[in-house]
Write a structure and sequence with these properties.
The protein is mainly alpha-helical. 56% of the residues lie in helices and 3% in strands. The chain has a two-stranded antiparallel sheet with strand order 1-2.
Length: 432
Amino acid sequence: MTDREAVAHLLRRATFGPTADEVDVAERAGPAATLASLLDPARADRGALATPVPALPADPYAALTKESSREQRQKANAQRREQLQGLTLWWLDRMVAAEDGLTEKLLFFWHGHWATSAQKVKSARMMLGQLETLRRHGRGPFGSLVAAMVRDPALIVWLDGQKNTRKAPNENLARELMELFTLGIGGYTEADVKAGARALTGWVVDRRTGVARFEARRHDPGEKTILGQSGRFDTESYAELLAAQTGATTFVANRLWFRYAGTEVPVPEGLAGADTVATLRALFTSPAFAQTRGTLVKQPVEWLVGALRQLGVRPSALPEQQRKQLLPGLNALDQVPLRPPSVGGWPAGAAWLTTSSLQARLRMAALLAAAAAPAVLTRLTAAPPAGRPDALARLLVVDGWGGRTRAALTPLANEPRKLLAAGLVSPEYTVS
């Protein structure tokens, strides 16, 4: 593998989709320096600063009373949906604009890991609050992240934590906390779930403010035995116990490998580090990581954001009619940010390669090609017609076209927008 292929592979996996210029810079710097700059950015993220966190109004439903009419409730629900749609489009814009692509993609990884859906939470404020929690703690020690998430209002609502009281323990949050977020199946017992639920009792969420608070009268202060240890566990000490398990760091390292490297190559030994950045460093420098090139099907959000970046398109700059097609397009591809299908998150691999998803991808590719920046088209058409498939590969950061793809692209050389659209749905672009 050449240095250019190595840094292109790294950037495709570590970020949402590098531009050709970013690969040029990385090639000059070399793989080691590129990885160092990804893991420890040296400058402020100008793209993130240009897409600041939105100031969201209060939950429109919170102002309603028992006397509110049906029409008022319908209006409040419509306002909720508008807020959530606006927040989702803002995040897509942030993904495209961010210069610190590793942190932005890591945020999306954690969002899928702590899979929380706005369809039940119904609050843009709470969903944004969770994103900020994941952003704040996602690069550091896993224990800090677990401690913050067990107090997260959106997660509490999503998994019925506000219904969990000393008189009627609700096991949903404790079960998923161990099974899906920290230890994995087989890392705990049913007795651990029951005791964990008791440890988590006492938290409620104020819908008006989107804030979680602890009510001592609802908490079970009694002694509990969890994972073989006994004590008067509460939310904080329970989270600390879970994060301290060797199985937790291994479980999370395996999940990172699953999303960043795929399943075709076994997880290498010794992947888990002291924090998430250390684990990513071990992942990206493992010899096994190089063997995963060309084996990972891009998630729809990853595919879309990468294409937007490479075609020089900002969602916020699109005409309203085109911008409004982005979320329905992602919905047709079965992946909309803030709306994972279940607490288990999104699927991976061949699950994204269905006949219906191909049709949706074709429609989205045509939309994106139509919106491509003039400079992108100029760069493509600057090459002679016979060289345009290769110019397209460089533009889309594809290592090379297979024979069938090249045969399909060649007749489109004089139709640059159709050439772009065809490249975006090619197997070589869809699988990184």
